[in-house]
Amino acid sequence: MIGYARCSTDEQTVTQQDEALRAAGCSKVYADEGVSGTTTSRPELDRCLDALQRGDVLCVVRLDRLGRSMAHLVTTVEALAQRGVGFRSLHEAIDTKGPAGRLVLHMFAALSQFERDIISERTKEKMASKRRRGERIGRPLALTPSQVRAAKKMLDQGEGPSQVARVLRVDRSTLYRALQRSA
Q1: CB neighbour class for 154 (10 Å; exposed up to 12, middle 13-18, buried from 19)
Q2: Quick one: which of 3, 61, 115, 154 could link to 29 by a disulfide (CB 3.0–4.6 Å)?
Q3: Which candidate in 8, 112, 146, 162 is catalytic?
């Protein structure tokens, strides 16, 4: 068995996944750290897939570590099957060596995609609702209205934009955006 682990952000690590995969019997574990699952080309996954040979089993801790979209996940597992490589997911207890495992994989993949679609719809609905109410969407503004007024005053008194941005502890482009919004 060959393992594959992935975490999406630089703040996360694959240590727990690595330990679980080795405990399950993986002789080698490939790991991508700080790589989104929506990216179909991931350096270590590519190396892992290239290294797999007939009779090997690719093992992951969870389905979403291999692929986030149903299409990518199913395509990858089918490509492995055509090469004579099995697939195993520890958390979902899926093993594609048998027909039941392949069926469960397809069902889980469909449900995962459905869940992501529902989350996406809810997010879009919430954003639309906020827009209708006139609420701001996105990150909080870096400068308060009083800071923008102070920035205008400093600029009117002859301070340069770089100096004003330094005093307010923001990037110059942030200062320019804030000034544009207030105009």
Answers
A1: middle
A2: 3
A3: 8
